[in-house]
Design brief:
With 346 residues, this protein is of the alpha/beta class. It contains 12 helices and 9 strands.
Length: 346
């Protein structure tokens, strides 16, 4: 039986918070297909990490979860994998979320602690499928070469340039600019030409560079949804038992031609997609905290069921199956309502 779990951007908590009706996930799996469970979230709530720890521990112990797919780049995934292998917190400083957001730092620290109790074959691997940010790539590339012997001159020269003041002034670590996209295109061309040198020095994580070469996503615009799907199909092994993906709620909606919709069109997969709603919870909006009272339910057809959903809230996190709500199941298979939660802190 193959289970592939895709989640959206979420985080860990130090203590179990409890998700009611979590059995919904395992009951929705199809033993004849690979199962992709997508959880969509807003990137502004501290509730998300708390939900993931529940799902990761549950699915790892019950279904042998082994891979975590993130809505970030291959280089970011490389840094997380090395952190999980070593516990070196300096590695997190090169990442986008864990390097700047307190709750994401805690998430990875707790995932590291959790991993210490697993056998080596059960350690969770991280795969990045989104666009690259040059400064994150530079941090990861420098870490990749650290302590290696017989480094090819071309690699060493590139690394020195990416550690320079000029590089950092010309390339951001935020939304990709045209200069950032051009640089990463040049990087991919460079790596293709230098493929023969991949094995010329010790213990090189070839998969990191290979995923960089094969990365189809350049930025936010264009065919990003299709490109995310191409990256998933390219990087997830056929024999993978469980893959968990963290992704924004916009990619999880069936109604539009986005990632979840395209993934469901592929007959090889059983897709189970949902999103998080926030009730009496703080979210970041334009740099300021606001109190959200399930505001996604203010529009039709959602607002029709607002009162019913609020009655179903049991504790901090509540799974709600949408199969009985035909006008809502066109969008998602389920929702999770997160109540009384805080916003992220920097």
């Amino acid at each position: 039986m193959t289970f592939v779990l895709i989640l959206s951007l979420l985080t860990f908590s130090s203590q179990s918070q409890g998700i009611t009706n979590i059995i919904f996930l395992t009951n929705s799996l199809d033993s004849a297909k690979a199962n992709f469970i997508i959880i969509g979230e807003q990137h502004t709530s501290a509730a998300n990490p708390k939900i993931v720890i529940e799902l990761l521990s549950h699915l790892n112990s019950e279904c042998d979860l082994s891979t975590l797919v993130i809505e970030f780049s291959p280089s970011e995934a490389y840094l997380y994998n090395k952190f999980l292998a070593t516990g070196d917190k300096e590695l997190l400083q090169g990442t986008i979320y864990a390097g700047t957001i307190n709750e994401w730092t805690v998430f990875w620290e707790q995932l590291y602690s959790y991993s210490q109790n697993l056998n080596s074959r059960d350690i969770i691997k991280v795969v990045g499928i989104d666009f690259e940010r040059p400064q994150t790539f530079a941090f990861a590339f420098n870490e990749l070469l650290a302590g290696k012997h017989n480094i090819p001159e071309s690699y060493d020269s590139l690394n020195k340039y990416m550690q320079s003041k000029a590089f950092k002034e010309n390339h951001s670590n935020r939304f990709p600019t045209e200069a950032d996209k051009k640089f990463m295109t040049e990087i991919r061309n460079f790596l293709v030409k230098q493929t023969s040198e991949f094995h010329s020095f010790d213990s090189l994580d070839v998969s990191f560079l290979e995923h960089t070469i094969d990365n189809h996503v350049e930025g936010f615009a264009g065919n990003r949804e299709k490109e995310l799907l191409l990256n998933v199909n390219k990087t997830i092994p056929d024999n993978e038992n469980i893959v968990l993906m963290l992704i924004g709620e916009g990619h999880a909606n069936y109604k539009t031609k986005n990632f979840a919709h395209l993934l469901r069109e592929e007959n090889a997969y059983n897709v189970i997609s949902g999103k998080i709603l926030y009730n009496k919870s703080e979210l970041w909006s334009n740099g300021f905290r606001k109190l959200n009272t399930v505001d996604e339910l203010k529009d039709k057809p959602w607002k029709v069921y607002r009162a019913q959903f609020l009655e179903k809230i049991k504790g901090n996190f509540s799974f709600i199956d949408l199969s009985d709500y035909s006008d809502l199941s066109r969008y998602y298979d389920y929702i999770i309502i997160a109540s009384e939660q805080k916003g992220l802190t920097y």
